[in-house]
């Protein structure tokens, strides 16, 4: 049941299945002179004036009913107040962390009004509607466990290192850590790709520079460290930072101050540091490509983001549906609205070395087909699936492609092949030798496309 309140310059959308909660919201907002408009079954207005402030109140039970993507789509980027399921001792893992405003089910009028007023003030102060939050799908057990770790470590000041294969959502996890920090979560989130710092520009980009400090320095410029003040500095692809830049970074972190080029004033660092990598930093430390002192400084807390294969069909299909829903927008769903079995089977069986990013691309392509045709057009969708399968790199093509090779865990693949060869391809023995279960071995062989008896590829250098 959806209801729509009007009040002054505020549109308050309420999406709540329980009549008593609805009544309570209506009563609490009565003194705000809110006009209640029943909006059951009618589409929410698309032409909302951009100058009007809009806010939504949604019950978390819509998440349990699989309605989160739908609800997020309907509210179209409005800030959302979630009414939590039952108790005040709630388990925050059950709620999407990007929605920070949660009211307990037994909220008081004062709590509701305070939250509404605070959000309205925030929106007016920003002069803009906040960005539409992206849905973070995490239905699998391993993702639930990761989100529990994120919730546990978000509000502390220790440095965090996030690792996981390419496209698994490391940056999304870094954003969750940022959003969950009581103090720094309110500040900026400054993301820096450490694999793309041009030679000779490290100091200028990270430290900033004073006006006139070099030819062309017309204005003073804040470096990344200063830009992140009061927020989170996210150092992405940290494993790609060359050694000579690693030492500069380490020095600043040890001093806890930074000095702009051409200045003598030391500025104290004040941010939360999160780094991410798709490379095995411990391996890099052993190969002396990564400084061990910097590694230990960054990896006070380590979080591992599982691959899409590890998450399994439950997440593959949920992510696919969430993306489809957002591509469909306000278009009526096809008939029947649920994904046909041949499509869910195909997605569940497909291997995505590019992880969530690759799955997103496929879901967007299929979403466009369904939106344009209004049906689950099997021939067109099968074409999109075949295309995605044929563009999936094989180990050989990745080994031949230097840029992609770093993303391919060739080391692990070769270790598995060596163990298989040593045991004459007996899986039980191999699994025992590697200290993993037969099921995990089978999954890894599938993931790395290891066919019985094939020779290993050379170790990545
Ligand atoms: N759990 C999730 N649910 C829905 N979308 C997700 C999820 N995780 C990641 N995504 C989406 O997948 C894409 C890749 O995520 P992200 O950039 O965080 O991955 P990454 O691990 O940092 O990738 P890379 O290794 O290439 O830097 C983004 O579009 C992101 O919004
Ligand atoms: Mg990334």
From TrEMBL:
Q: Name one GO biological process term.
A: regulation of DNA-templated transcription
- The reply on keyword Transcription regulation is yes
Q: Which SUPFAM superfamilies does this entry report, sorted A to Z? A: Homeodomain-like, P-loop containing nucleoside triphosphate hydrolases
Please name the source species.
Answer: Variovorax terrae
Sorted UniProt keywords:
ATP-binding, Nucleotide-binding, Transcription, Transcription regulation
Q: Which domain of life is it from?
A: Bacteria
Q: What is the protein's given name?
A: Sigma-54 dependent transcriptional regulator
The positions making up the signal sequence are: none
Question: What are the protein's GO molecular function terms?
Answer: ATP binding; sequence-specific DNA binding
Every copy of the Sigma-54 factor interaction domain together lies at: 136-368
């Amino acid at each position: 049941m959806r209801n729509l309140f009007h009040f002054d310059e505020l549109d308050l959308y309420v999406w709540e299945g329980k009549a008593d909660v609805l009544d309570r919201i209506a009563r609490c907002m009565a003194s705000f002179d809110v006009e209640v408009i029943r909006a059951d079954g009618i589409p929410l207005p698309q032409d909302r004036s951009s100058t009007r402030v809009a806010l939504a109140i949604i019950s978390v039970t819509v998440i349990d009913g699989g309605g989160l993507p739908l609800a997020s789509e309907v509210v179209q980027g409005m800030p959302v107040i979630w009414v939590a399921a039952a108790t005040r001792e709630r388990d925050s893992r059950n709620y999407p962390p990007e929605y920070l405003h949660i009211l307990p089910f037994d909220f008081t009028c004062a709590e509701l009004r305070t939250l509404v007023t605070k959000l309205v003030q925030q929106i007016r102060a920003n002069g803009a509607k906040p960005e539409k939050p992206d849905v973070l799908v995490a239905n699998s057990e391993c993702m639930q466990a990761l989100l529990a770790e994120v919730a546990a470590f978000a509000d502390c000041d220790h440095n965090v290192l996030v690792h996981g294969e390419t496209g698994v959502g490391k940056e999304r996890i870094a954003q969750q850590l940022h959003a969950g920090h009581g103090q720094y979560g309110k500040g900026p989130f400054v993301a820096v790709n450490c694999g793309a710092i041009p030679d000779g520009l490290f100091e200028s980009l990270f430290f900033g520079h004073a006006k006139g400090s070099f030819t062309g320095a017309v204005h003073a410029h804040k470096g990344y460290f200063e830009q992140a003040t009061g927020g989170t500095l996210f150092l992405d692809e940290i494993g790609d930072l060359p050694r000579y830049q690693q030492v500069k970074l380490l020095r600043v972190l040890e001093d806890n101050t930074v000095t702009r080029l051409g200045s003598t004033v030391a500025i104290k660092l004040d941010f939360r540091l999160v780094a991410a990598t798709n490379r095995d930093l411990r391996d890099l430390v052993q190969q002396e490509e990564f400084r061990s002192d910097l590694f230990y400084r960054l990896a006070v807390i380590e979080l591992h983001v599982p691959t899409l294969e590890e998450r399994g069909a439950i997440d593959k299909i949920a992510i696919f549906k969430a993306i489809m829903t957002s591509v469909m927008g306000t278009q009526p769903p096809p008939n029947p609205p649920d994904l046909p079995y041949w499509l869910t089977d195909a997605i569940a069986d497909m291997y995505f070395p590019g992880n969530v990013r690759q799955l997103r691309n496929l879901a967007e392509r299929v979403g466009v087909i369904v939106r344009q045709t209004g049906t689950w057009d099997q021939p067109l969708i099968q074409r999109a699936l075949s295309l995605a399968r044929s563009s999936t790199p094989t180990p050989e093509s990745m080994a031949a492609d230097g840029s992609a090779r770093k993303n391919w865990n060739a080391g692990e693949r070769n270790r598995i092949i060596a163990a298989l060869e040593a045991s004459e391809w007996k899986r039980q023995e191999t699994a025992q030798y590697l200290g993993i279960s037969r099921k995990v071995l089978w999954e890894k062989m599938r993931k790395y496309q290891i066919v019985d008896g094939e020779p290993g590829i050379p170790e990545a250098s």
